[in-house]
Design goal:
- The chain is an alpha+beta fold.
- It has 27 helices and 100 strands.
- The protein has a 79-stranded antiparallel sheet that branches. Strands 1, 2, 3, 4, 5, 6, 7, 8, 9, 10, 13, 14, 15 and 16 form a 14-stranded antiparallel sheet that branches.
- Helix 9 packs parallel to helix 11.
- The longest helix is centred in the first third of the chain and has 16 residues.
Length: 1930
């Protein structure tokens, strides 16, 4: 009762102190008036100012442009009284920066006039802006600008001559503000105020799908620290008058990520207010109807600027953009689609969806566009989109995965409304997806109700909860049929919360012990979100029942602890004292213990309650057996960030494994707790499954497991045992049951329950055979999905009142297209073929901008990821032995992945792309090259482009330095290649295995034929293999050995027919002790080369040793050896390895760990050494010694790696004494070339009563710093069982920085009734300095019987230095009938006191009273209220408020005179206004309704009455009567229905008492039997005009429609249309007409006739149109049958004389038979063009033979005629090609012929090409022949009697040790310089001799000779090198 009374009084007080209040009386804006007078503004004066604000946004240091907006105005402050002023604006001008010229241009907006229209009344309390008042509501956009201006004026200093820190509320929020004061010249005072905007509360707004729960914290970070903001205001006042001369505010907002010291994404805001003049005011007080705070108000809502036309246009853009797949622009188009959809109404959405279905929008790409539209619907999150969602889901038009995703999206709607619940409720009645709908709709209910505490009283919420409750089995008697639906209904009710009405049903569910335990647990868990005020006594009874199942009891405890209370804690503590069930006791004990230590901000209240409790730990806490709760939490208060990880592991006494588990992760971010996820589940029956396998009598007994360790798993699990397992396992699996759930943001989105594996798998069962049959046919599959996975924004106010938006949008679009078939029904013969085309794009857009009324400026970064690929292929298998695989890349370019970013400045609706930093921009391109392209036909290329800003001063950090582009693409370089083909054949029998594998690339330019043949003769032990490729050929013949201890292969290899070598490989194995010894040998013999061999041993023993010794010979003159050894012995583990390249080149690694164990200690010694041939690279040694319980030592040395050894020594000594004393000493000694550190720490624990630490730290940083720091702490615990008492001290001393010295002494005393804490702090070099001392003390006495009856006294004192003192005192007591609180705060000599008293004197009738008093220096406030019930349903409330000498009284009475009638009256007596009387009455019935009231002030009276009369199903009448002193308004509406006739009439008279003609009348009547017969009229009459509309529509054999609209006697618009279908048995004719008549000269009339005919021979369509006299168009289109791709005959004739086209004709005839013949002709007036084309193909399978001709005839002089003939023939041996163009009597032609043979690498080819020009003929011939030893190549070109001849001949017999080479190159030209040039090369080498000569001649004359000779005879070496030309020798 006390809490109820407190709430009533607090609500009454809010009418005086609330931030927003709607009032309907004339009142002063200032509720009070301060007595101080810092600023002496004169009443009745107007002060005029010039105001300017400038905002600029750019990426400083990177972008070349900036976006800006300016606002200027004249500001007038009219002083109505000392504490009340009116602010007016005029000459408001908004300008924005032109992106092209950077000049400022004007912005037009209706909101600008709104700024000037309504004055703003301000409660001005001597500088403090207490409240803003309006005569009528205004938009938040306008008000926020006015708030920004008033914030510039505000000054909350007590004295403008003294610096001061205050908490100030202005447009930026509630902020700690620092004022500093200084003189500016002789006459002015300059005040500077600054704020830490990050610590302001109530500042940040957001729009995100992430759901968080607010919490309070004392942190200085109250909003997301993404923006670093600075705020400084300078105000200049005149000293003599205290009046404002000017004010300037500078604000800078920097996006913190990637910014660097003045660079990055930055928004600057500057405000300036300058005094102009002062004059006599003419302003009058405004009527006050709305009160608002000065704090910035975040407005929400969706702009409805987009139209239906915009939506259709965006869908067409998507249609065109995605025709061939997903492009990088696709996600942006989808984002734009979602934005447009948010502004549309449901009717338009339905219409557009129907258009898409009917293919009226995008008929060619309709399926994909429809999918885009459907994907956008759940992303918009509006009531209109939800209506369409529900319609499509309930009608079954959206099913499957899409339906599941749609319903899941309901849980993430950002700001759902109650209206959405009415729409979503229909989903609960669906036959399909009902279970999913229950969880989704219930999540939506909770989101709606989260911000509406009284949500459970909403009708729609009640309906949904009731509907969910109805799905539970009657009386909750669960059967198999009702189990699943009832279970999900319970989960859904728990999801929704606010289901107090369902508690009786829930109680039945968990009380019935015969119900399945899943039902009982879910019913208890339903209370997790039900409000704490609900009765949970039945849940408590479950918890205290020790006979109940432990799982159920733990669930009851968890539900109860969602709403902890003193009573509950005492009840739980009592249960713990006598708890006999260890499972329950261990869980409760662990949970309460975690609560005592938690940092979770939401659990601090219960933590404080538990602080006084002492829990006795009497339970077994073995984690492997007993239930418990786990929690780890952290809250960093400084940055207001933390996290909570919580989990449950619940065991059952009936099972040896856990029954259920849960894990929950919540993050705390800047005042909001976000529950990221909770995953949990339970399982029952798994213990039987495990026991049946691994139990004593199971299939895997202990003996089986031991045997499995020694043998392989195949040896243990025999086939017969597996069969027995399968047979007996069926029974065990039937007993397996369980459930899983997942919650996100606290909403349960998934729940799965199963009973037996069949139940689990049946939830997603499918018919495998049906699927295979479907796959065996040709199928086309396409899937497109788009999602806006991120749509979040953070809004913070700027000082100017414009909101600064940080917005991040992320959109992803993926498309998968596939076609083909998979026929495996005739296995082992199968056929699989198809093509797949996956593509995807992701766009993330980040924006920082300022919304200035109707314009926006800012910067934007767009990041795009795109991928588009395709592949097609075929796989066939014939009789299981022949496999053919073919695949191809159909596109010449495959974009594997591309990533790019771009930057823009935003100027209203225009975005201007920025180049950003271009200096030192890096671009890299790389490809795999021509070699890989030649081998595969493919080339993989990558590109990377980015700005390298490392050398640019003041540049921001990457990635906001500039655009980035990166990508990987795959190119098909061999474009003629039609794919890759792989063929494999195999034959296997008892005697032999034959395998052939072949690979080729059909139709490719390059030969890529590969073949591999293998023949294994098992009888003879022979192996034959061959391999062929375009480059190499090889074959192998040999034998093989396959014995148990000896395996090998030997034979001869033939490589390209010229290189032959022998190969022999052998591996012998034998058992060696506990391990195996392997001896591998490999020998390769090549004629003329050293024999290559590998030999050695490999020794291996499991877990004991591994040794290798291998030697490789024949590569170098000395063997190359590799040795390694790993030894694992009892006391030493070592590893070593070495590589010897030569006797003097040895690389080695050695390491070891040696263990020496004694009786009382253990020693580990380790070493690592790495050596090269020249030096030791690393030396590491370390020793770890542990003397058990006494001493731990660690000694580490690292050498060679650094110039001077690095040493670390640590020592931990533990000493134990009598009486429980424990001492630990830690020593650390670190030495290096750069730094030395020595530290000693001593920790002393004296029996848990005294704790002391002594730390001595000395560090030396050479050439930089040296210091010694000592820290001594001591804590003495003097607590007893009933008293907590402790004393603590700390002393910190630094030799280098004595100013950091600190001394602290603290005392703590605490018991159930008294708590006391004292702290003394001294700092600096002198602890006796009184100015550097702080003392704090606080004590509290309390007597708490329960939450409803308690008393407490709190005293506190804070002393800072010698000049500052704060003393506080609080007395509080309450019981069920009263509450009394008194507070005193004294700062130095000033004191503030307050008191609150609440009384409940109710008996049978209510009687409540309360009083609040506040005493300030020189001020007194008293507020009291009495609420009394005179009789049942008859109440009187009296409120008195006294401030100083003023007294105000409000007396209100309300009486319920009947069940549906209520009267209210109120008398208001205010000291500053005339008396006011308010009356109201309300009556409601099924056929009559009345609502009315009156308001009277002095002699002025206002009244309003609304009445209605309804005759259900026949008529309705509504009347309104509004009266005020100056006007009387009467309105009437009548409507009736009789049969199919409808009549309605509406009449409004707005000056009924004075002028009856001032009225508007609307009449409507009509008749409609159906949509096929409609006839109606509609008229509107108002002074001076009558408007009429008539509509007729009839449907019979012909459709006919008439509409006319008349607004003046001769002003009529008429519209008539007809549509008729005149079909016969052999033909069809459709005729449609449209006629339009208007009074407009430009379009007097319009007649259109469309005639479409179809008969057996043709299709024909005629169009005739005429508008106004003599304006005509006619057209006829005829298409003759049959119409196929092989036969087309079309004619078109048109006329448009008024447009200048007398004749328009075109025709097309196309025929495909033995060849192709096409004739096309176009005639326009007298101009014509005709094209004839023919093509003949005489080729067959082995020969290509094509001939064709194209003729062109026109009426143009430039091209009268033109003919092209061409032919091409290829029979595999010779290719002939020719082409001839005859154009205006000139000929151009080309002929070519080529022959050739190819055998292996030998080529023989020749050919010629002839080019014919009008003036000359050019001819070229060539010939080429080569073998393995000879090459001859010649070529010749002739033209205009000129000739160029080139010949090359070469002969080689190169080998070792003897070889020869000769070559000659001859060049003949008509040019004298190289008339006849010959290059001749001769080379000889053999053992001991080299002779090489190169000669060059021209026209037979020697130009140069180069000789090189080398001779080695018996060790005598002679060499000679010479060059010569005529006359000179070198």
């Amino acid at each position: 009762m006390g809490l109820t009374l407190f709430f009533v009084i607090a609500l009454a007080a809010r009418t005086f102190a609330g931030p927003i209040q709607e009032v309907s009386i004339r009142d002063q804006c200032a509720r009070q008036c301060t007595v101080s007078s810092k600023f002496n503004y004169e009443t009745g004066q107007t002060y005029e100012f010039n105001y300017e604000t400038e905002i600029r946004t750019a990426i400083q240091g990177a972008s070349e442009d900036q976006a800006g907006v300016d606002l200027s105005a004249k500001v007038y402050l009219d002083l109505l009284s000392k504490c009340e002023m009116v602010m007016r604006l005029s000459d408001v001008r908004l300008t924005e920066q032109d992106p092209e010229t950077s000049t400022m241009i004007a912005v037009t907006s209706d909101l600008i006039s709104g700024l000037e229209q309504n004055p703003l009344t301000v409660s001005f309390q001597d500088g403090n802006i207490e409240e803003l008042c309006l005569s009528k509501p205004e938009s938040d956009k306008i008000l926020n600008i006015k708030r920004g201006i008033m914030s510039l004026i505000q000054n909350n200093m007590d004295d403008i001559n003294k610096d001061q820190k205050v908490t100030e509320v202005d447009v930026s929020g509630k902020c700690e503000t620092e004022y500093t004061s200084k003189d500016k010249g002789w006459y002015n005072k300059l005040i500077t105020k600054s704020k830490n905007l990050l610590g302001c509360t109530g500042r940040q707004g957001s729009n995100t799908a992430i759901h968080g729960i607010p919490y309070s914290s004392n942190s200085g970070v109250q909003s997301v620290p993404l923006i670093k903001s600075t705020h400084e205001v300078q105000q200049e006042f005149v000293k003599s008058t205290g009046r404002l001369q000017s004010a300037t505010c500078h604000e800078e907002h920097t996006f913190v990520p990637f910014s660097r010291s003045g660079s990055g994404a930055i928004t600057h805001s500057t405000q300036t207010l300058t005094f102009v003049k002062e004059y006599k005011s003419r302003s009058k007080p405004e009527q006050i109807s709305v009160r608002v705070p000065i704090q910035f108000q975040h407005s929400s809502g969706i702009s409805a600027e987009q139209t239906r036309k915009d939506m259709e246009q965006k869908l067409m853009d998507i249609c065109r953009n995605t025709k061939d797949g997903i492009t990088p622009e696709t996600p942006n188009l989808f984002t734009s689609l979602v934005r447009t959809m948010k502004a549309m109404e449901s009717k338009d959405l339905v219409d557009i969806y129907q258009k898409i279905k009917n293919k009226e929008i995008c008929s060619v790409n309709n399926d994909r566009v429809r999918k885009f539209f459907l994907d956008a619907i759940p992303m918009s999150g509006t009531i209109d989109s939800l209506k369409l969602m529900v319609k499509l889901l309930t009608s079954g038009q959206v099913t499957g995965l899409d339906a599941d995703m749609w319903m899941t999206s309901l849980a993430f709607i950002q700001n759902p409304s109650i209206e959405m619940l009415a729409e979503a409720k229909s989903l609960l009645s669906m036959k399909t997806n009902e279970e999913k709908a229950m969880l989704s709709v219930s999540s939506l209910v909770h989101t709606v109700c989260k911000n509406n505490p009284s949500c459970d009283n909403f009708l729609e919420v009640k309906k949904i909860i009731s509907l969910l409750e109805s799905k539970i089995a009657p009386s909750c008697k669960i059967s198999d049929d009702t189990f699943r639906t009832s279970l999900l209904a319970l989960r859904a009710i728990g999801n929704a919360g606010y289901g107090t009405s369902t508690i009786p049903t829930l109680t039945k569910c968990f009380k019935r012990t015969e119900n399945p335990i899943e039902i009982r647990l879910s019913a208890i868990e339903t209370f997790r979100r039900i409000p704490c005020k609900a009765d949970k006594s039945t849940v408590l009874s479950i918890f205290v029942d020790t006979e109940e199942d432990s799982e159920v009891r733990i669930a009851a405890y968890k539900s109860l602890m969602e709403c902890p209370s003193d009573y509950l804690i005492s009840k739980v503590k009592g249960m713990l004292g006598k708890e006999e069930v260890n499972q329950v006791g261990s869980y409760v004990w662990s949970h309460l213990t975690n609560l005592m230590e938690t940092s979770n901000p939401h659990k601090q209240a219960i933590k404080s309650v538990l602080e006084d409790e002492i829990l006795q730990k009497e339970f077994n806490m073995d984690n492997r057996k007993f239930s418990r709760n786990y929690e780890k939490s952290l809250l960093l208060e400084k940055i207001n960030t933390g996290a909570v990880a919580e989990g449950d592991l619940i065991w059952s006494s009936k099972s040896f494994i856990p029954r259920s588990a849960m894990v929950n992760l919540t993050v705390d971010l800047f005042g909001n707790a976000i529950n990221l996820f909770e995953i949990g589940g339970r399982i029952e029956g798994l213990e039987y499954f495990l026991e049946s396998y691994f139990g004593p009598n199971g299939y895997f007994s202990e003996n089986d497991v031991q045997q499995a360790v020694e043998e392989t798993a195949v040896d243990v699990v025999k086939t017969d045992k597996v069969k027995r397992i399968d047979k007996r396992n069926n029974r065990v699996m039937d007993e397996l049951r369980g459930s899983l759930y997942m919650r996100v943001f606290g909403n349960e989105l998934r729940y799965m329950n199963f009973q037996g594996l069949d139940s689990l798998f049946s939830q997603n069962s499918f018919n495998f055979l049906d699927m295979m049959m479907k796959f065996s046919k040709e199928n086309d599959y396409q899937y497109t999905h788009s999602s806006m996975f991120m749509d979040s924004s953070i809004i913070v106010p700027t000082s100017s009142g414009f909101p600064l938006n940080l917005t991040v949008n992320g959109t992803a679009t993926m498309d998968f297209k596939a076609s083909g078939k998979m026929d495996v029904m005739k296995f082992p013969t199968m056929d699989i073929r198809g093509i797949i085309k996956p593509s995807a794009a992701v766009v993330v857009s980040s924006q920082m901008g300022v919304d200035a009324l109707d314009t926006q400026v800012g910067v934007k970064m767009v990041s795009t990821l795109h991928s588009s690929t395709s592949v097609q292929g075929k796989v066939s298998l014939s009789e299981g032995s022949i496999v053919n695989v073919e695949f191809d890349l159909p596109e010449e370019k495959q974009e594997i992945i591309s990533v790019s970013s771009s930057f823009y400045t935003i100027h209203r609706h225009m975005e201007r792309e920025q180049k950003m930093i271009t200096v030192n921009r890096r671009e890299h391109n790389a490809c795999t090259g021509s070699k890989l392209a030649k081998i595969t036909g493919l080339e993989l290329c990558g590109e990377l482009s980015f700005p390298n800003a490392s050398l640019v001063e003041n540049a921001p950090y990457f990635p906001i330095t500039g655009p980035v582009k990166a990508g990987i693409s795959l190119y098909k370089r061999d474009t003629r290649m039609t794919g890759y083909k792989l063929e494999a054949r195999s034959t296997h029998n008892a005697d032999e295995n034959i395998v052939r594998v072949a690979f080729t690339t059909p139709n490719s330019r390059t030969d890529r034929n590969f073949a591999l043949d293998l023949n294994l003769n098992k009888v003879q032990g022979a192996l034959d293999a061959s391999f062929s490729s375009p480059w190499k050929k090889a074959d192998f013949k040999g034998t093989f050995i396959n014995e148990k201890t000896n395996k090998g292969i030997s034979g001869k290899m033939n490589w390209d027919g010229s290189v032959r070598f022998d190969v022999k490989a052998n591996l012998q194995s034998e058992r060696s002790g506990p391990g195996m010894l392997y001896s591998p040998t490999i020998q390769i013999s090549i004629p003329g080369m050293n024999k290559v061999g590998l030999s050695g041993t490999v020794k291996y023993a499991a877990w004991k040793n591994f040794e290798t010794d291998l030697s490789l010979t024949g590569i170098k003159s000395t063997p190359i050896s590799v040795k390694s050894s790993i030894q694992n012995k009892a006391k030493i583990m070592s590893a070593s390895a070495s590589l010897q390249v030569s006797p003097k080149q040895v690389y080695s690694v050695d390491s070891s760990v040696q263990t020496t164990e004694y009786k009382k200690k253990i020693v580990y010694k380790s070493q690592i050494s790495i050596r090269s041939p020249s030096q030791e690279l690393l030396a590491f040694a370390g020793t770890y010694t542990n003397v058990y319980g006494k001493n731990i030592e660690l000694d580490i040395v690292v050498d060679k790696l650094v110039e001077k050894p690095v040493m670390l020594k640590t020592n931990l000594i533990t000493k134990s004494f009598r009486r429980g004393r424990l001492q630990k000493i830690v020593r650390v000694d670190f030495r290096s070339k750069v730094m030395d550190i020595k530290m000693k720490n001593k920790f002393d624990n004296r029996n848990g009563k005294t704790f002391a630490t002594d730390t001595d730290l000395t560090y030396v940083i050479r050439r930089y710093a040296r210091d010694n720091i000592k820290l001594v702490t001591k804590v003495i615990n003097q607590s007893s069982k009933s008293l907590m008492k402790a004393r603590a001290s700390m002393n910190l001393a630094s030799k280098r920085n004595p100013a950091a010295n600190l001394k602290l002494i603290g005392n703590l005393n605490h018991n159930k009734r008294h708590s006391e804490i004292e702290t003394d702090i001294a700092y600096g070099p002198d602890f006796k300095d009184a100015n550097k001392q702080v003392s704090f003390s606080m004590s509290m006495d309390r007597a708490i019987k329960s939450l409803s009856q308690a008393s407490a006294t709190l005293n506190g004192k804070l002393l800072v230095g010698s000049g500052f003192r704060i003393i506080t005192k609080l007395d509080h007591s309450h019981d069920p009938k009263s509450l009394d609180s008194n507070v005193m705060l004294r700062i130095n000599k000033d004191a503030v006191t307050s008191s609150l008293s609440l009384k409940d004197a109710s008996t049978d009738l209510k009687s409540l009273s309360g009083q609040f008093e506040l005493e300030l220096p020189g001020k007194s406030i008293v507020v009291s209220q009495i609420v009394k019930e005179n009789a049942p349903n008859d109440f009187t409330s009296t409120m008195n408020a006294k401030y100083g000498k003023s007294k105000n009284t409000i007396v209100t009475s309300w009486k319920k005179v009947a069940p549906s009638a209520l009267t209210i009256s109120s008398d208001i007596d205010l000291s500053s206004a005339d008396p006011i009387k308010i009356n109201a009455e309300y009556t409601f019935g099924p056929e009559q309704y009345k609502f009315g009231g009156s308001f009277q002030k002095a002699t002025s009276k206002y009244s309003a009455v609304v009445t209605s009369q309804v005759e259900i199903g026949k008529s309705i009448q509504i009347s309104t009567d509004l009266e005020c002193p100056s006007r009387h308004v009467i309105g009437n509406f009548e409507g009736s229905k009789s049969n199919n006739k409808y009549i309605s009439r509406a009449d409004v008279r707005w000056n009924a008492d004075r002028d009856d003609t001032q009225r508007i009348t609307i009449n409507g009547n009509g008749q409609m039997s159906s949509l096929a017969d409609v006839d109606g009229s509609f008229t509107v009459q108002y002074p001076g005009r009558t408007v009429a509309v008539n509509v007729r529509n009839s449907i019979g054999k012909k459709y006919a429609t008439h509409v006319d609209f008349q607004w003046e006697p001769k002003k009529i618009i008429s519209f008539d249309s007809t549509f008729g279908d005149y079909s016969k048995s052999d033909s069809r004719e459709i005729i449609s007409t449209i006629k339009l008549g208007t009074p407009f000269i430009t379009l007097k009339s319009l007649d259109i006739t469309l005639d479409h005919q179809i008969n057996s021979g043709m299709y024909q369509t005629k169009l005739d149109a005429q508008w106004n006299p003599k304006q005509t168009i006619s057209a006829t289109l005829t298409a003759r049958k049959p119409m196929t791709l092989k036969s087309i005959d079309i004619d078109f004739i048109g006329k448009a004389p008024s447009l200048g086209y007398r004749t328009i004709q075109s025709s097309l005839k196309h025929n495909i038979g033995n060849g192709v013949s096409t004739i096309g002709k176009v005639v326009l007036n007298r101009q014509s063009v005709q094209v004839d084309m023919s093509l003949l193909d005489k080729g067959d399978e082995s020969t290509t033979d094509i001939k064709g001709q194209i003729d062109v005839k026109t009426s143009f002089r430039q091209l009268k005629t033109a003919t092209v003939t061409f032919s091409h023939r290829n029979d595999g041996r010779q290719i002939d090609t020719s082409a001839l163009l005859k154009y205006n009597k000139k000929q151009y032609g080309i002929e070519s012929s080529m022959k050739g043979k190819l055998r292996g690498l030998e080529v023989n080819t020749d050919g010629d090409i002839k080019i014919q020009l009008p003036s000359d003929t050019i001819r070229a011939t060539w010939g080429h022949k080569n073998s393995m030893s000879e090459i001859i190549t010649t070529s010749e070109i002739t033209w205009d009697n000129k000739r160029v001849f080139v010949s090359f001949k070469g002969l080689q017999d190169l080998s070792l040790p003897t070889g020869t080479l000769s070559a000659a190159l001859e060049i003949q030209t008509p040019f004298n310089v190289i008339k006849d040039v010959v290059f001749q090369l001769n080379h000889l080498h053999k053992t001991g001799k080299i002779d090489s000569t190169l000669m060059v001649t021209n026209n037979g004359n020697s130009l140069a000779t180069i000789e090189g000779k080398y001779l080695n005879e018996n060790g005598k070496i002679t060499s000679r090198f010479s060059t010569s030309n005529p006359g000179i020798v070198y």
